[in-house]
Amino acid sequence: MTHRLTVDQARRIAVRAQLLDAQRPGDVVEVAEQIGEIKIDPTATIAPCEQTVLWTRIGWSYESGQLRKAVEDDRLLFEFAGTFRPVSMLPLLLPEMRRWPQRESSRRWLDANARFRDDVIARLRAEGPLPAAQIPDTAAVSRPPDGWSGSNQVPHMLEFLMRQGVVAIAGRDGRHRLWDLADRVYPQDLPEIDEDEAAHLRHERRLQAAGIAKQRSPWTPVGEAGEPATIEGSTRRYRVDPEAVAALDDDAGGRVAFLNPYDGMLFDRPRLREIFGFDYVLEQFKPKPQRRYGFFAHPILVGDRFVGMLDAHVDRQREVLRVDAVHEFTPFEPEEHEMVRAEIHELGDWLGVAVASDDD
């Protein structure tokens, strides 16, 4: 069966899959279970990505300590490859971990540094959890500079061992990761899933989070998960979550949401362009004269349409959320103005600061 969807229906499916409709989720774990990954990024013009992703979905009842509790105390989420993920995803990743790395250059580096690897594991076994800075660099062979990390090889080895499921991130001290042996961080009673089934289940979870996605998208690959779908006016082949289609008539309505530039809703740019008519460009790495909306402007979603960009930052000296601009793609209706204004003040309340504009 091929589902034939209107563009409006496709948008609503995508918005609801990302928990951005009026029916807000109740807690951090519910968000992670539905959207699969919560991106970690320290850029904090307003707040770090992992915090704004959760506030955007849960709203006023979300407090930043809830994420730390879910990760470090309850162990219901785990940190992996720059994201927080629900522990239910871990069995689906283990088959990939066991055959990592696939790249020959990475295998050679690990082989050449077998003793270094053993040193790192032994140090963690004896003293973990530890930050990378407290683990000696005994590498025999260094990886070439990549522009992101220095000459110290310990972070590289820890990342490699995390990818293999040997070590894990036990928590954080501020923004610094604390590393330990995986068998002291991850649950030990996880189900065993073979590689093919795990790959299919990962596709299903990815489609659950997207609602609708192109089958072979390099940004949101979903394989044979879900059911085939077409979207009015498009010749592209999509896959859709049948549960999302079934729930289309159960519409809780829309709301305003400010999306962090690294929010997963924005990840698949071609899908954004085709379904939402939103050609999103992150201007963080553009020279200032070339920026149209601002260094780290947050897209504004109203209902199922992107209507503008919020350029704002927290002024730490004055303890205010300074709104530099609200860019409107087309002039807002009075109701939209009021909804966006109210959400800005909700954001200020959550941050614990007053709201100010350049006119103040």
UniProtKB/TrEMBL annotation:
Top-rank taxon: Bacteria
Pfam families the UniProt entry points to: AlkZ-like (PF06224)
Keyword annotations of the record: DNA-binding
GO molecular function: DNA binding
Name of the protein in question: Winged helix DNA-binding domain-containing protein
Organism from which the protein derives: Microbacterium pullorum
